[in-house]
Design brief:
By secondary structure, this protein is an all-alpha fold. The chain is built from 19 helices and no strands. The longest helix has 29 residues. The radius of gyration is 25 Å and the shape is globular. The N and C termini lie far apart (60 Å).
């Protein structure tokens, strides 16, 4: 059953405005539509699917010998964020009792007082559901950011960074634009699903981390190509499906605004993908699958802040502009000398900025009103709201500066702590992060190949019959087992000097 009036389906009239009441005495679901809650729960599951999508995307973009490391850092960052958000992240971002425009307080520490009352972001769903949904937004942003460690970063320091980053970067940015007390919210900044905290937050933070981490070994950069385009495509597909929960669910109910946001996301993404492919074709005269994936992601990024404000024709235009802007933005890292290895800034930072600017020009109050709650809002130039452009630019500049500077400070501070140095050694970089940091590999044949090289003699030193060689790297348990078996049958094992660095390289 729907509702015929503007506003929440049922007025929240509980005497307990914090919890909604005792669930043993009253039905705390009475103020919400079951369909709205079901839709946001499903949307949350779709957003969760974006985390492995990012993992597969980053793994495919990296070299084979660091593919597993990218899977690990992305998936582990999800666990770090889940705890941080439960502990104090949600309170810092969405508590309404803080009397300042920049950051929340500890009113909801460990999710205290987060129960059946309406969410701070929408009267359509309860706070408990809203907190879970928003936790996944932070997790996706962290997963995007941690891609900066690719191929040369140690994994444990990066997890320490993510916890501090979520506290000092993501939570303030989310507070600014989505909390009623935030300065961006107070001044009418239009950010539908996270252009400021998610896209600019991840893009600028990844750029800062990459700057502190330093460039990869220049010898390894010659003729570099992503090692697995199938994984890149799989990750992009998972991200595309998940983005429908990310953008569609940000209407916080099963309503027409959610349908419009989903339509806009697909239109912006596909037009950006086509534009990116055309731009790459003009140079290579080939149709790139990596280019299509990069374009699709850049379009979905641009749709994140804009899909709930624009009409569909404007989303098509946004896709073309985002495809062009993000494609050319991939050159910025060479201009500034920062090795943003996975182009997080070019696709997410720049794409988010483009979407936020489009809101000022093409934001439409009629689209906003499709959720049945937020009627009568003047959005962008189409509604005669011309001052919004200045506030959109102010939000972009402030968020970019905050995310970059604070992330760089956090990264440098962690790097100075004994035992938490961010950068792996040069030898580890040549060997690969999988072997150095994990002792596991994404592909079985790589493990077999490594052990084969470790057991094989140098070409100029052939092995004698009955002599086994001591492996110098690989799976230690395998080596020990083989040594025991050989010792029991053929006598002692002769140790062989390590193989050369050239033979170790992937």
């Amino acid at each position: 059953m729907g509702y015929a009036h503007i506003g929440a389906p049922t007025e929240f009239n509980a005497t307990d405005t914090t919890f909604g009441g005792n669930a043993n005495d009253i039905n705390l679901n009475q103020w919400y539509q079951a369909g709205d809650q079901a839709y946001i729960l499903i949307s949350a599951c779709l957003v969760l699917m974006m985390v492995p999508g990012i993992a597969f995307l980053y793994s495919g973009l990296a070299r084979r010998k660091s593919a597993l490391s990218m899977l690990w850092v992305v998936m582990m960052s999800f666990g770090v964020v889940a705890f941080q958000w439960y502990f104090w992240g949600f309170s810092l971002a969405f508590s309404t009792t803080a009397n300042n425009p920049f950051i929340g307080d500890m009113n909801h520490l460990a999710l205290q007082r987060v129960w059946g009352a309406p969410a701070v972001g929408s009267p359509l769903i309860p706070a408990l559901l809203y907190s879970f949904y928003q936790m996944l937004f932070c997790a996706v942003t962290a997963a995007l950011t941690v891609g900066a460690v690719a191929e040369r970063g140690r994994v444990i320091p990066s997890m320490v960074f993510i916890f501090c980053w979520a506290t000092l970067v993501y939570c303030p940015l989310a507070y600014w634009v989505w909390n009623p007390n935030g300065w961006c919210f107070q001044n009418g900044v239009l950010d539908y699903a996270g252009g400021v905290p998610v896209e600019i937050g991840s893009g600028m933070s990844a750029l800062a981390y990459s700057w502190v981490l330093g460039r990869r070994n220049e010898k390894m950069m010659m003729n570099f190509r992503p090692h697995n385009i199938s994984l890149i495509t799989l990750g992009t597909v998972l991200l595309t499906v998940g983005w429908l929960g990310f953008n569609g669910g940000s209407a916080f109910g099963a309503n027409l605004r959610a349908a419009m946001a989903s339509w806009n996301s697909i239109l912006t993404g596909t037009f950006a993908a086509s534009t990116w492919c055309l731009l790459d074709y003009r140079l290579a005269k080939k149709w790139s699958m990596v280019g299509w994936c990069s374009g699709m992601i850049s379009g979905l990024v641009a749709a994140t802040p804009a899909s709930g404000f624009l009409d569909m024709w404007a989303s098509i235009l946004l896709g073309v502009v985002a495809g062009v802007a993000c494609n050319f933005a991939t050159k910025i890292k060479f201009m500034v000398g920062i090795d943003d290895s996975l182009d997080v800034f070019a696709e997410h930072g720049v794409g988010g900025m483009v979407g936020l600017i489009f809101n000022a020009f093409f934001g439409n109050g009629t689209v906003i009103a499709l959720d049945g709650v937020n009627a009568g809002i003047s959005a962008g130039f189409l509604d005669g709201n011309y001052v919004v452009l200045g506030w959109q630019i102010a939000a972009i500049v402030a968020a970019s500066a905050w995310a970059f500077v604070v992330s760089a400070i956090i990264a440098k501070a962690i790097d100075l702590i004994p035992g938490l140095k961010l950068r792996a050694s040069e030898e580890a970089e040549l060997l690969g992060m999988d072997d150095d940091q994990h002792g596991e590999f994404s592909y079985d044949y790589v493990e077999v190949r490594r052990d084969f090289l470790a057991w094989s003699p140098q070409r100029d030193d052939p092995a004698q019959e009955g002599i086994a060689l001591e492996p110098q790297h690989g799976i230690q348990e395998h080596a020990s087992l083989a040594n025991r078996e050989h010792s029991s049958s053929d006598g002692p094992v002769e140790e062989k000097k390590p193989i050369s660095d050239a033979d170790k390289r992937d």
